[in-house]
Write a structure and sequence with these properties.
2 domains; about 50% helix; Rossmann fold; alpha/beta; four-stranded parallel sheet; 8 strands; globular
């Protein structure tokens, strides 16, 4: 199966190892993975800030960069949710309306692709620790992802998965929300970390590095003994 890799801006700049681990897992699943080096942003930051024309210009480039019949897979439900749910609206009644509708059917978040398309849950990963899972708002609400990542984690040898209280509550990142409403954002991160600590877990795992960046920032600033991991990094461990 052919897969086009979409690596979001912040993953490319700050967490490239997650992108490589995603390739590792997809190739183990038998996929042929291709990466278009011309790709940039999906246009979500500009759209969320109210700059629809600028967002449309970036999104038009995305449509060109991913003009393919292959599946498009990304380690970010936030970006996938934007392309899937908002591209058809962004290009409504325009030249690229059909292209937007087609691409929205081909783009998948990483865990969603593994469980819903490939239908593989066991990758022989090994991680001997206790962990709790954070549902990102985009995964849960934009992409309707809930059990898939948990099923993948349940097959990780040595991993004890413990649910935290309020696991569906936002971490406080929300893109520019964390900048505009810093105090509220920090308070939400604190609540998330405290709920995770109450489980006795050593790691917080999620599908979205934007959430993990927010959570990890709070953890490090307050010298808390806890770590964060993206699901792709977990599934690539031990083999």
């Amino acid at each position: 199966m052919n897969v086009q890799l979409f690596i979001p801006c912040f993953v490319d700049q700050l967490y490239p190892e997650t992108g490589f681990n995603m390739i590792k897992v997809l190739e183990k699943a038998g996929c042929k993975v291709t990466y278009n080096t011309n790709q940039t942003c999906c246009g979500q930051p500009a759209f969320n800030a109210g700059f629809c024309d600028e967002s449309r210009a970036v999104a038009t480039k995305f449509l060109s960069d991913f003009n393919t019949s292959d599946y498009i897979v990304a380690p970010s439900a936030s970006c996938v949710g934007f392309v899937r749910n908002y591209y058809p609206k962004l290009f409504e009644n325009g030249t690229y309306q059909n292209s937007a509708k087609e691409i929205s059917k081909k783009v998948y978040e990483f865990s969603e692709f593994l469980t819903s398309i490939l239908k593989i849950e066991n990758f022989d990963a090994v991680l001997n620790t206790k962990a709790t899972y954070h549902d990102s708002c985009a995964a849960l609400r934009e992409c309707k992802i809930k059990e898939g990542p948990r099923n993948l984690l349940r097959h990780v040898k040595g991993l004890e998965l413990i649910e935290m209280n309020d696991n569906e509550t936002c971490c406080g990142f929300g893109g520019t929300f964390s900048v505009k409403f810093e105090g509220i954002s920090i308070g939400m991160a604190e609540q998330k970390v405290q709920n995770a600590l109450a489980t006795g877990a050593e790691y917080i795992i999620s599908t979205d590095l934007s959430c993990l960046m927010q959570i990890d920032g709070y953890i490090k600033k307050n010298s808390i003994n806890m770590k964060t991991l993206h699901l792709a990094d977990v599934l690539a461990m031990g083999w």
